Amino acid sequence: MRRVITAALASASLGLATPALAGITLADYNGPDLTTAIHAAHDGHPTEATTVYGSTQINVGHDVTFTGYSSYNVGAGTGTETNIDITDGAGFAQINDADFDSKDASTQNLFDVVMDAPDFTAYEFSVQLAADGAVSIYYMLTGGTTWILSTGSPIDQKANKNNQYLLSSDPAESIDKVLISSTAPIFELKQNSINLAGAIPEPGSWALMLLGFAGVGVALRRSRKRQPVLMQIA
To answer: For the chain, what is the largest distance between any 2 Cα atoms, rounded to a whole number of angstroms?
Structure first.
């Protein structure tokens, strides 16, 4: 029993010494889609507007929003909105610049998209730009109010290429908003999928559970030792 308690205490001290956030990174990605696809919502909302709606369940309400901007101030958290549209492309939400005209550069005015979804630990997506540019990804931690630039941003991208990216976090932290920002006009954003955050206990929580089990074990052991004495007295 002493060994169990010692191990629990060691785990607790390790949990307290380990930072909760190991880092949130952006990287090129060529792997499989993530566990939860984001679909276009089909619950009566307009499919073309400055904010359009998606869902992590097929034809069930909406729990994701995409908002388009022609310019966005990261520090202030505000920007000039522009129309985007949403469709289902190959089973995933596909976001396009609603005013895009390949022959008229003045209509190519989608440079930033904010995606707001249920808490997640990873986000996969692909972007096609109308010209050579650099893509930067900012994220907002669950409950946070500040945009944070992801490690790995910006990534240079050629025009008319669908580059696939993966934004991933430490499982101990979760994200609920992502800002996709480009120096060149965004033509489309697609292949949207996420890994929803799960209730995974941190090392400190596991240690407290072990201590609790150890305490119950000690109490039961003492109770068994006292039982024969009580029977003799009776």
So the answer is: 99
Please, which pLDDT band fits residue 195 given cuts at 50, 70 and 90? very high
Strand partners, 51: 67
User: For 42-67, what is each residue's pLDDT tens digit?
Assistant: 888 999 999 999 999 988 899 999 99
Q: Residue 203: is the preceding peptide bond cis (ω within 30°)?
A: no
Rounded (10°) angle between helices 2-17 and 203-233: 160
Query: How far is 49 from 179, CA to CA, in rounded Å?
Result: 18
Q: Which residues of 48-57 are buried (b: 16+ CB within 10 A; e: fewer)?
A: ebebbbbbbe
First-to-final CA distance of the chain: 31
Contact 14, 227 (CB under 8 A): no
